[in-house]
Amino acid sequence: MRQYLEDGNPDPISVKLYLTEKCNLACDYCVYKDRISAREMTQEDFQYIAGSLFQMGVRSIVLTGGEPSMHDKIQDMVSYAHFKYGFDMGLITNGVLYNGIWNFKWVRFSVDTIRDATYEKIKGKACLQKVLANVEIAIEDKRRYHLDTTIGVQMVVTEDNHREILEFLEYFSEMDLDYCQIRPVENARYKTETINFIWDQLEVARQMEGSSQTVLTDYKWSEVDNNYKKSYEGCPGAKFIGAVGVNGDFHICCTFMNHPDSKYGNLIKDRGPEILKNRDQVLKKFDYSKCPVGCQGSLINKYLIGIKKIKHRNFI
To answer: Does residue 223 lie in a domain region?
Structure first.
């Protein structure tokens, strides 16, 4: 924060990293469909990239995809990054495969529904029961081995599952999870009757009690409620985050992976200082009107812009 307030050039804190572009599902809302391929990051490249990120000041790595659990070296890579450099590791997974939660600070399962028919319609395959079983195995592993891993499940709300929000929360509230997250599809356009029904369900959800925390990602839903518009301009939070592809390309964020206008450089070929210097030029030229509503950076940006507006530090 001191770097951000003094010269606007903070070191990146957290990046999303793509071990593989393979995926074992075909979610109908997936924004990465055009990236699905057989390409994977080699273990050697991962180790080099981890070292480069460490030198740049990065503190945490979130594995996403594609489906990261499909990489047969995922546990070796996680152990290397965690023990060699002390990275906090996060994992976003569909849960079809389970490789364990060891050495992860948090794991989030993208489940979306507890109905088999709805799952197959949204996800493209009939494997909900396998996913639910793997969520329970993760919870049991956390208990048995006294792990401090935060475990959550996520529901991305679509036209196909929007009537199942409370059912989803009730089901998972009976499990010993840390949280259940309900979020919109980035840049989705919901029908008027659909969004009205969602608002009603979210209001009821706020009053629900259970063993796990209900996270409604209000900052995402507020942009949907604001006629699909952001309440700020640009993306001051972009310098705190980033996304790394299987080939080592470092981009603004996961939304714009493989977009040439969002690339800072390559973590295998380029030096860290050169990448951070190029970052300034990329961010100055970037067209932020392309950004989706309810993105990863929304809450970060609202916070950062609010901090900048404080004129007298003793009168917050």
So the answer is: no
